[in-house]
Design brief:
Length: 675
Amino acid sequence: MSGDPGEPAALDAPYPPLREHLDPEGTAFTDARGRSPGDGSDPEGDAALPGTLYEERLPAAERGALGKFYTPSALAVGICEWAIPDTDGEVPRVLDPAAGSGRFLVEAYDHIERAVPSATPGEILDRIVAVDVDRDSLRLAPLALATRGVERPGRLRTHAASFFDLAPGTGPGADDALGRFDAVVGNPPYIRQENLSPDAAHFREHLRAYGPEEAAPYADGDRALSTKADAYVYFVTHGLRFLRDGGRLAYVVPSKWLDTRYGEDLQAVLYENARLSAMVGFSARAFDALVDTVVLFVERCDDPATRDRTVTDFVRLAEPVAPETLADIVATDRSVPDDQPFAIETTDVYRAVSVPQRRLAARGGSKLGYYLQAPTRFVPLVESDRLVRLDAYADVSFGHKTGNNAFFLLDDADVDRWDLPCEFLRPAVRSLRDIGTRRLTETDHYLLDMHGYVEAVRERRGGPARDADPAAEVKAALYEDGHDAVLDYIRHGEAEGVPGGRTVSQRTPWFDLGELPAPEVLHPVFYDERVFTVENAGGFAPTNAIQRVDVTDHEDVVPHLLNSTLHKVLLELWGRHEGGGALQLLTYEVASVPILDPAGLSAPERAAIRTVGERLLDGDEDAQTALDEAVLAPLDIDLSAAGLQAAHEAMLRRRVDGAAEASVQVRRAADRDGV
């Protein structure tokens, strides 16, 4: 639906939350704290008031479902300064595909008014398009313009529709063909992929427009975008389609796309269709501490050679900056020497790590967050050719997923209660949370291990008979063999409904967990304040709360590298921060975390690491510093063991202590170079 080009938005339309705050003449706003436009009481600027008012009145559940979070005014101004081009008198076209109450629309209008002083208000409004699925929110856009004194704001082109029901077409016209734009700006909704169901296909259909006809590489082809992507990712990929060649897109988005697998897929789309100009992140002191948020700055580019010449800047602001300064920082034409993988520029206000886009594209989807998050001295370390992925020397896999720990995972009391024999039990590790040693030799947990017996029954009976029930056959064998206690326990599980579980029901028979191998190293999935790995000296089978690390080469060195503080620092950079300040690493993330390459070490260097590593495993905590020194020695980095440990402690404290100040959208954290 488009706004009436001739009439301003009607103030008497049914909208109770707004009318509660109109003055008696119906011409001015006050919010819940009595602020009104122009009285100097709104620190974000007058245009913030309609959005602030709507956010305050919108129920929390609805706000979360719609993914609505409003953008600081200064940030919106800076984004528009960069994204909207100077056009030598021609009024540029601007699209906000998730316009909400109009924050970006107001700033876009102001920018164009300054850049093209000859343009009339109507000409500017005709070139700005607002889209939002929330009709009530979209009604605020003309009102926000009105607070700035814009004449006849009802001429603003609005579409109360899902962005994904619209297409660029070849020119402005019908509701489903908006044409091409010079700039696409906004703050897409933060809706997790779980909440896209059952309409996930609605968000993905536009991906079929990419690539040669019938190819659809990003929809279901060889470079398909992960179905785990959150909604904002699709706003990026769809938004690019609305840009002319050379048009710019700038969005406020969560920073997690820089570190997730679906983010790696998004990288491929960007490298193949755009110049990835910059990502800007924030310290606690910049833009209301949007430390879990970045601004993505990209330019659509159809020429591969131009994309290859692009230098991508990863900018972290240390202090608030004026909007024009933000635009200037992003627009700065930085370069990287041909013989260098990156360049670093550091000022009192920001740090920029510049990387050639061709280098990023050549290595494919990968972790990028450390360019923003890592303390400056660790950036060259992560990029060092002395480091290698862990999976170069180890197989990393998920721990055993039982589907029902209450049944399959037993402690000593359970074993005594059911009188289960040892031959049907596999010593196991449930969690490392309460383990205080680096070398695990004892356990009081067991997994029900039926696999050997099930295989023996199959062999003894020559394989399952046609239409036979494998579970019934094994239970019959247990009865025949006198294993009454095990049979009773299986029947107990059936009475409790265990076989009906989603994971359990996929097994044949349901009580066979399969082989339960034990890894050499136990690597937790979640960390809190203790970041560590454990040598699995007792050969215990881990549950799925633990990653399995089986070292395949350099077994005398690799396990000790995983106990170094360098590994702890890299885990902080490689993992993702979850609720309560927890650090999570999925299997593929543990596999890709960098370690010192043991193949590049001399025999004395390997011996030094092995010697002090064994001391640490034996309980000598003083050996931690000696191990860190031995690991740092082969690296060309000006960092002592004490400095490394202080850096890790600072990163850990920011993660854990910062969780106490978490908000819906962001978590406060200290500046990452303050160590």
